[in-house]
Structure to design on (114 residues):
């Protein structure tokens, strides 16, 4: 589970990251990342997840959310301080394994770091 300090919770924060951040799409997910231009006083990177009804019913959506939290939580410390991420699951994520989601996330992050 992600600590509370590492979660995006406000709608305005999600919107800011999606509008102003860089985006990398993969077959099962899209990652939006916003890195601060100047150093901030924030001590941790933050992440939020968007898993819409297009992914599936509530059981499927929560399964996808749990898998994504596990994948992203392990890598969150690797991002620069103050980075905000929004991970949006696409309908193909419903049938994906954790390994496939991890591979897509890693690929998206590598693309964003270029």
């Amino acid at each position: 589970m992600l600590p509370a300090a590492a979660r995006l919770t406000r709608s305005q924060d999600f919107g800011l990251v999606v509008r102003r951040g860089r985006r990398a799409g993969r077959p099962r997910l899209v990652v939006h990342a916003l890195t601060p231009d100047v150093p901030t006083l924030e001590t941790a990177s933050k992440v939020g997840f968007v898993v819409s009804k297009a992914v599936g019913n509530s059981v499927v959506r929560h399964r996808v959310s749990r898998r994504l939290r596990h994948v992203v939580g392990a890598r969150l410390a690797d991002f620069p301080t103050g980075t905000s991420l929004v991970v949006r699951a696409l309908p193909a994520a419903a049938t994906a394994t954790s390994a496939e989601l991890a591979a897509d996330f890693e690929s998206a992050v590598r693309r964003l770091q270029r």
Notes: Strands lie at 22-25, 29-34, 46-50, 84-89. The helical segments are 11-20, 58-75, 98-113. The domain at 24-35+42-113 is CATH 3.30.230.10 (Ribosomal Protein S5; domain 2). The mean pLDDT is 92.
